[in-house]
Amino acid sequence: MKKLLALLFVAVLALAGCVQKKSDVAGGGDAESTSGEKPSIEILGQAANENDLNILRDQLTKNGFEVVLNIQPDYGSYSAQKDAGNYDIAVSSWTTVTGNPDYAVRGLFKTGGDYSIVSDSKLDELIDKASTLTGDEAKDAYAELEQLLVFDQAYIAPLYISKKAQGIYSAKVNPETVLLPKSRAQVWENISFNDESLNATETLVLHQAISSLTSLDPIKGNDGSINTLNTNMYVRLVNLTEDDQVVSDGSLSYNHAMAEGNSEYYFILRDDINFAKVENGAAVDTGDLVSAEDVVFSLNRAKDQNSVPDHRTYSLHENIDTVEVVTDLSELQNAKVAGSEETVLDALSKELPQAVSEVVESEDQVDNAAGKYQVVKITTPNPFPQVLNYLAHQSGGIVSEKQVTSINTYDVASYDPNTDIAYGDQATVTEGDSYNNQLYASGPYILVQKNDYEATFVKNPAYRVGSEFEPKITNISVRFIDDNDSALSALRNGEIDVLQTVPETKLDIVKSDDNLTLNEADSNGVTYLQFNTKGREVSDSADLRKAVLYSINQEEFITYYQGNKLPAASTVTPLIDTGLKLEADSEKVTEFLNAYNESK
């Protein structure tokens, strides 16, 4: 009996010890000290973000909010809810795929930006100011911008920076040939099987979650459904290295140069890339050179907001003023490279197949082996070195002037998507009665057809033939699997060969599998909360938004992901360390909630 009583006494003490006071809860505020009713916050997210949503719900609940979760099964449903305005805050993410800070803010937060729902003239001014600066001046400008965006107005609330983790079925694929750039999309032409004799016959199976493709016209889409696909279908004037340096390697240019004043940019073009098209399910060489005329056409339409209906990448290229073909060799001889005494001609002439004897206007005159080259000049209205990063983006892909103009015969102002089939419409490559593949690819691969299960690609037979950049594998399938756990299972079973994103909580699974290799790298990907700017309480109250902001404890996310996330202050953080940090602060939460309630 004494033993039983003793056990009961210990149990009571244990239970008493488990009771948590509000002050014991990490990140918890004192809800009772907040005046007025608890504000209700609806959080929109996808099922794939359910863990983040649960952490957010707990953090906000502890700080005096009533939380409603709006969890959608996929990106399409999520987008529909977002477009309908059915949220207070939406879990969003952004990866700066151009490696420059301007891209991390312009399209997202500038008034009228491709993805912006924010309209703030002061913020617009700071975005434009920061874009023209370099070094410490740029750092200071982006710190001022970040202060306004996050801490003064709380238009967004940062959660964390992700790292990149890629799984490779190395029992079949050579992991040394699978690159993991910080910003650039997956580089297909570099990949090889372990047994190189299989490159011409076996299919490389890749993966992406989204099966509905926005557009295969590179300027009409800028999302996860097409970024990788269009990057590998259309060559650009420049590329990014794995650590975000702008280079001419693997591009349409032999070399490029920025002239004095940082407003004139020159590119000398190569003549070993033709457009490919699809005939009877195979890629064929059109014999049509990817030329300066195509570059001028492509970039002029990229910078023209009205060149196509639903132009989704205009803001990336609005800083291009003119695009022209240089025909006067003396211009290159007289112009100096920025910060140097080297002439632009000398900078462009490095490691050419033949010294430049003539710069020609028409593609019919091009003959690199005889020293006849085309040179394209791009000017910006103001100094803007970041224009090069945008030219490396998939939206800077070079399309065929001949093909696009023959397809896009509609009037842009009266375009009807139900009757007018635009160049790049996925309907033209979807198997079935409507299949009519109209694509012309300037890059290493061309899309043959797609269905709900996969998209099939073949190598461009006229892309850098005989060079190190000629695509190694002939056939590629991009398998659509929207659930990442299912995709990881497919990788482990050898059903897909590369999984571009391994969840942080599953890294050990890949590491412990003898058939797999894990690649890890830093990324420019930031997950953040986007506040609804129309029709909700949070739309009109910066105090309410700040109460949400200071409820967020980033360390809890980092702990959950086993240290595989990093703190963020904004989408700029992976690119420039401004020194600003977000720290959970329950006292500030109470202060801002009280201010919000008093203003009602």
What does this structure look like?
The chain has helices at residues 2-18, 50-62, 75-83, 106-109, 121-131, 135-152, 227-233, 292-303, 314-317, 329-334, 344-348, 387-391, 401-407, 484-492, 507-511, 537-540, 542-549, 554-560, 586-599; strands at residues 40-46, 66-72, 89-95, 156-168, 203-208, 239-240, 246-247, 253-258, 264-269, 274-279, 282-289, 322-326, 358-359, 372-373, 375-379, 445-450, 454-459, 475-480, 498-499, 517-531, 565-566. It is α+β, with helices and mostly antiparallel strands. The strands form 6 sheets. Strands 1, 2, 3, 4, 19, 20 and 21 form a 7-stranded mixed sheet that branches. Strands 5-18-17-16 form a 4-stranded mixed sheet, covered by helices on one side. Helix 5 runs antiparallel to helix 6 (135-152). The radius of gyration is 27 Å and the shape is globular. Belongs to the bacterial solute-binding protein 5 family. It holds the Pfam family SBP_bac_5. Residues 259-576 form the Solute-binding protein family domain. This is ABC transporter substrate-binding protein.
